[in-house]
Design goal:
Layout (H helix, E strand, L loop, with lengths): L2 E6 L5 H12 L3 E3 H5 E2 L3 E2 L2 H11 L5 E4 L6 H7 L2 E5 L3 H14 L18 H13 L1 H11 L4 E5 L2 H9 L3
Parallel strand pairs: 1-5, 1-6, 2-5, 6-7
Antiparallel strand pairs: 3-4
Helix pairs in contact: 5-6
Length: 168
């Protein structure tokens, strides 16, 4: 595992897993939310997202977490390992509410500077609909890559912990 992509719903634990894997394997982790959100929740244009990711994936090793479906193929094609956090939407929504409370009126560590944590009905709705709207396409796409890349699907916090305990 030298080039790792972590994808999953909001609240699935992508950034936490990226950080923990980075510590375990002594690798740099890149949170796309940190790179693609400017102060006051202004998104970075897609052409800049493409440029940044094309540069990141040229590095010798990396961990990149985030969805950004319109540019996901850049990461998926360059990765040797794809980790999909297929965590239940109930857990994801709970975690998002928990972090909203923890970081209220602050910028959390894995978010772009100047993007204070806030409640967003649209984001909660996106998480709730993720299993029907995003998950099937992601599963289809990673199934296509499973012969040439290591694909790991983790379905619960316990599976994530067991995966982190494994020696690799």
């Amino acid at each position: 595992m030298k080039k790792i992509v972590i994808i999953g719903s909001g609240g699935s634990g992508k950034s936490t897993l990226a950080r923990r894997l980075g510590e375990k394997f002594k690798m740099n982790g890149y949170h796309l939310d940190t790179l693609f959100w400017r102060p006051n929740w202004v998104g970075v244009p897609k052409d800049e997202q493409i440029k940044v990711q094309n540069e990141l994936v040229k590095r010798e090793n990396w961990i990149i977490d985030g969805n950004y479906g319109g540019t996901m193929d850049i990461r998926l094609n360059a990765a040797d390992t794809i980790i999909f956090l297929d965590i239940s939407r109930t857990i994801c929504v709970y975690r998002v509410f928990k972090r909203m409370l923890k970081y209220r009126n602050e910028t959390r560590p894995d978010m772009g500077e100047g993007c204070e944590e806030r409640f967003s009905f649209e984001f909660i709705k996106w998480i709730w609909e993720y299993p029907k709207t995003k998950r099937p396409k992601i599963l289809y796409r990673i199934a296509q890559l499973s012969k040439e890349k290591e694909v790991i699907i983790l379905k619960s916090p316990k599976e994530v912990e067991n995966f982190l305990r494994k020696d690799k």
